[in-house]
Fold this sequence. Notes:
Layout: H1 6-9, E1 19-23, H2 27-33, H3 38-59, E2 63-70, H4 78-101, E3 104-109, H5 117-129, E4 136-144, H6 146-159, H7 170-174, E5 187-190, E6 209-212, H8 222-233, H9 243-251
Parallel strand pairs: 1-2, 1-5, 2-4, 3-4, 5-6
Helix pairs in contact: 2-3, 3-4, 4-5
The structure holds farnesyl diphosphate (FPP).
Farnesyl diphosphate binds near residues 26, 42 and 73.
Amino acid sequence: MPMKGKLESSILPEKLPAHIAIIMDGNGRWANVKNLDRISGHREGMKSVRSVVRAARNIGVRYVTLYAFSAQNWQRPKLEVDALMGLLKHYLSTESDTLIENGIRLNAIGRLRELPEDVHAALDDTMEKTRHCRDMTLTLALSYGGREEILDAVKRMVSDGASSPENISTANFSSYLYTANLPEPDLLIRTSGEMRISNFMLWQLAYTEIYVTKTLWPDFRKGHLVKAILNYQKRERRFGLTGEQVKIREVI
Ligand code: FPP
């Protein structure tokens, strides 16, 4: 077991976010500042992925979801799209053993059929190999859009014949989303300072605590994750109730 730093030891296990979702932003800017090409930024961003996934698992977080490639990212220059797909395939082929050793199950959400065949196959392969892992679930959002997810859910509901109004509830609708088997995120982290959701988990983020840091994704490592969790632990989550009601519920 790795040694815990001072900050990490102040994390309260009973208030740990079960599910952390991350918008990994700023790879391009990181590269730009260093006079490198954007792809170098994504390559360095992948190191952050490795570091943050391992740290989250060691801290005891049960679910991590990473916004790795949006439905809109296909419109980037072909060179960059190809590089991102290449990095993803590389990650999948080199990371399976580490995921298994750390008890991490790989999952994916998004319009996965739109991925290149070899990437899709590598994804299926790693998901299959890690199916038995129970310590943490790592979900990659790929070719993912929140609006697209909601539309896909509506289409499936209609084609299932479940479309009569009285059958539709929040729980029932949630079961048609790509995230049917995941709890809603407790904490959303967005790097590089932008204050927006960018079509990410629009339904699921309804009551999620949002943490935005100016740190660019390639610079975001374990210490930054610990800080985000500590910040989350100071929040009062109300879910639409008053502060008083929340306190009474905590006592019960
Ligand atoms: C946003 O930065 C980042 C992405 C669009 C891709 C994220 C991909 C990685 C971190 C590497 C591969 C990931 C995995 C899971 C293997 P940006 O390019 O929008 O940065 P900018 O806003 O500064 O231009």
